[in-house]
Amino acid sequence: MKVRVSPGGAWKDVKAGSMRDGMDPSVPPGVDFYRYANGAWLAATEIPKDRSSWGVGAQVSELTNERTAKLIREIGEAKGNPNALLVGDYFAAFMDEATIEGKGLAPLDKRLASIAAVASKPALAKALGATVRADVDVLNATELHTANVLGLWVAQDLDDPTRYASFLLQGGLGMPDREYYLDASPRMTEMRTKYQAHVAAVLELAHVKDAAAKAARIVDLEKKIAATHATREDAGDAEKGNNHWSRKDLDVKAPGMDWNAFLAAAGLDKQTAFVAWSPKAVTGLAALVASEPIDVWKEYLVFHALDHASPFLPKAFVAEHFAFYSKAINGTEELRERWKRGVEVTSEALGEAVGKLYVDRYFPASEKARAQEMVKNLIAGFGRRIDALAWMSPTTKARAKAKLATLEVGVGYPDRFRDYSGLKIARGEALGNLERAELFELRRNLAKLGKPIDRGEWVMTPQMVNAVNLPVRNALQFPAAILQPPLFDPARSLAANYGAMGAIIGHEISHSFDDQGALFDATGKMSNWWTAEDLAHFKASGAALAKQYDAYKPFPDASVNGKQTLGENIADLAGLSAAFDAYQLSLGGRPAPEVEGFTGEQQFFIAFAQGWRTKVREAKARGRLVTDGHAPPEYRGDTVRNLDAWYAAFAPKPGEALFLAPEGRVRVW
Description:
The protein is α+β, with helices and mostly antiparallel strands.
């Protein structure tokens, strides 16, 4: 799909390319459907040097960033729109490299001085508590790799949907996952060596004495932290994570930390209850505070203060940050242009302020209405699938339909945008702006505690190319940026739009009924609404799908983890099935027109596979196998092999790699 957008961004000026662009018809669909749909594109495309991967999602993100940058630059010295001015000033401060260079490490002086002053375990607990920041949905981001020794997620209580709870999340690692510290494979061993060199390099840039020795101690401490962490699979398991602890439980179950000092510094001292999402990590952290020397913890805090701030510090820090996190871990060859990084950090800090500017310019009401119509058809299609399930009892069906009926769907942007009036942003203070924005977000989340649930709150910004299911709210959100070509394209056929965007919408609906979503009832309460027999059947189907994905090997020495990716794989399969039903429903009994020689059904499945069109650098791909809950793109595109309709559309032959006999096709929903 080639897309051209007019400078003004009007949707009527978007032009769709041929569906055949990038296909490789020499590959039989039954042998490798993903390459049948994308083979020529894969052969001809080079990943941009400043990217670790490239494909449809990245292309849409790039277009969105270009549009956003234009909007930010147009703000200039505009008057009368306080949020717009905050956006313009944040971006301008980040782009002011001369001022950043001139200040050096001065913006960190106060933070580093506070660490140097730590002389007791209570003071250490206070310093660690001060690192706590608000984080995103634990069910969608289950592992932290930041300077926060514990992350905080303020969200609807899983046991009581009428109140907010404070979720404590495992954190404190500089690398993406515990396996980077504990896996004995040659690749991970090499990564640990590179990480230790990175830690030393950052300390040396800050003129810290004995940098090499301190780096060794810091990495050793992080390895001990990693050993307390839940695995990726367990961290994403709501049943294992839903551990309600009283304030007293912190002292009893996690001794060694001065919790009064920690919670006061984190702004949580008034809370009487918490959810320890990974209790072993909370207990382990406290034990390490007690057992490890204060000086080692101070070295750790100094490094992470520097590392976290690096993108906002002088060029030498930026280069070192890129060399490890982008090049070593992900294989990216070149640092992204500063304006692109500026757009990203501004969107992170002032997401809805940027989002309001974006939707006012680029997301007309007509596109929102068109997306809402597709969502309505997808929900109806999913309801039909529930009705047609021969294995599900009437009791479970009724509860599933009740959950579907109360599903809240946000399209494009929130009804009420966030107010940033309490946030100070100043030109010439790039790092200060980052720190104040992070504290603003923490305090915004803390302020929710004790108040009624805000069911209109968005966890994604309108300019984010993504979508989300929120099981604890029984809600979906589809930001404006994902609802654009080539995924959602007024110039493409109905079949192609349902195959691409419809499958994404269906995917998110299906998360309400995947292995984790199935644990939550229509109110968002964690409650088993299945009969024992139905749940056993569902789990057996999930196990069969996990086994199917376990067999996929993107590298000779590395396989997909079917259990780790199960929730996303269930959502891919169920979402694709629901999207196909919704597409049929949208035809209203009319025959589907052929496009470029393809039937409507063929268009649907080709568009689905082309929606996963992606090339990934090997380092990034290997890292995703360890850290990502999603299967690699090529296997997501091959989800089609489980749908009877795909067999009718493409007639794959027995013996071909993707062919499954009817009894071998996994049917979840």
